[in-house]
């Protein structure tokens, strides 16, 4: 028993965020230590090299608005609130889809940023308070293997709001590799599940997809939920 506990503790050290995430900035390291965060709950990497310049800018700058954000247990992350820091000055005009019609306006592509935050939050087992899928799924803009997990934002009706349903703070760390044009979003906290199994995307037909999360708590209890997404068009 003593040897098992020792091995378990050794694995915790090996898998600690400070040891497995490369090139962590000092301020992020400090927040991990200060909040006693011990687990990478999820991570997601997006290659934006094929995106138009305006979209590259808005996706990366939008996702980076969540970098270093800490949310206490029970607190809800509000993505539009995070984007409004500094009065939206970081963003540029670009294409967005309004009522199914491509429209050139301020902030086009920011839904890509919300998707970059939403996918790892889903993989981490966090609770979605508010989210909206796109009406049109573009295969060249969003990873097909995660179809059904994209999110869109559009003030004031559509927002991405995620509740920290763990027992301790969570931290978002966003690493933008400008050279490789890849952005990685990490959700860091303390796990309340010892295992999360994902079933999806399940093609239900008629452009509808389902995901199932089966989450095993530390006491062995299994909880599950579903997410069903319908698209008007898939391109």
Report on the architecture of this protein.
This protein has helices spanning 2-14, 17-20, 26-34, 53-64, 79-83, 110-123; strands spanning 39-47, 70-71, 76-78, 93-98, 101-106, 127-130, 136-137, 161-163, 170-177, 182-189, 193-205, 208-217, 222-230, 233-234. The chain starts with a helix and ends with a strand. The protein is an alpha+beta fold. The model has no long low-confidence stretch (mean pLDDT 93). The strands form 5 sheets. The chain has a 4-stranded antiparallel β-sheet, sandwiched between helices. A 3-stranded antiparallel β-sheet has the order 3-8-6. It is built from 6 helices and 14 strands.
Mean pLDDT: 93
Strand order of the largest sheet: 1-10-9-2
Rg over CA atoms: 18 Å
Beta fraction of the residues?
Answer: 35-45%
Question: Which regions have little confidence, pLDDT < 50, spanning 5+ residues?
Answer: none
- Give the CA-based shape: globular
Structural class assignment: alpha+beta
Q: Helix content range of the residues, please?
A: 10-25%
Largest sheet at a glance?
Answer: 4 strands, antiparallel
Instruction: Please give the number of β-strands.
Output: 14
Order of helices and strands: HHHEHEEHEEHEEEEEEEEE
For the record, give the distance between the C-alpha atoms at the N and C termini, rounded to a whole number: 56 Å
Total of DSSP H or I helical runs spanning 4+ residues: 6
Which key features would you list for this structure?
about 240 residues, alpha+beta, 4-stranded antiparallel β-sheet, 3-stranded antiparallel β-sheet, about 35% strand
């Amino acid at each position: 028993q003593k040897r098992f506990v020792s091995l378990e503790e050794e694995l915790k050290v090996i898998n600690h965020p400070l040891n497995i995430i490369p090139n962590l900035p000092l301020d992020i390291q400090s927040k991990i230590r200060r909040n006693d965060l011990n687990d990478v709950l999820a991570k997601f990497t997006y290659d934006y090299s094929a995106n138009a310049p305006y979209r590259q800018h808005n996706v990366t700058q939008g996702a980076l608005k969540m970098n270093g954000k800490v949310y206490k247990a029970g607190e809800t992350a509000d993505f539009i609130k995070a984007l409004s820091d500094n009065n939206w000055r970081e963003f540029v005009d670009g294409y967005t889809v309004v009522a199914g019609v491509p429209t050139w306006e301020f902030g086009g592509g920011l839904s890509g940023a919300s998707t970059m935050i939403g996918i790892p939050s889903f993989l981490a087992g966090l609770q979605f308070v508010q989210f909206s899928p796109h009406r049109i799924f573009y295969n060249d803009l969003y990873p097909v293997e995660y179809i059904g997990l994209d999110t869109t934002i559009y003030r004031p009706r559509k927002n991405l709001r995620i509740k920290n349903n763990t027992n301790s703070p969570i931290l978002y760390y966003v690493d933008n590799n400008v050279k490789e044009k890849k952005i990685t979003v990490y959700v860091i906290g303390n796990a309340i599940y010892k295992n999360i199994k994902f079933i999806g995307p399940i093609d239900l037909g008629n452009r509808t997809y389902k995901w199932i999360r089966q989450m095993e708590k530390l006491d062995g209890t299994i909880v599950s939920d579903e997410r069903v997404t319908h698209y008007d068009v898939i391109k």
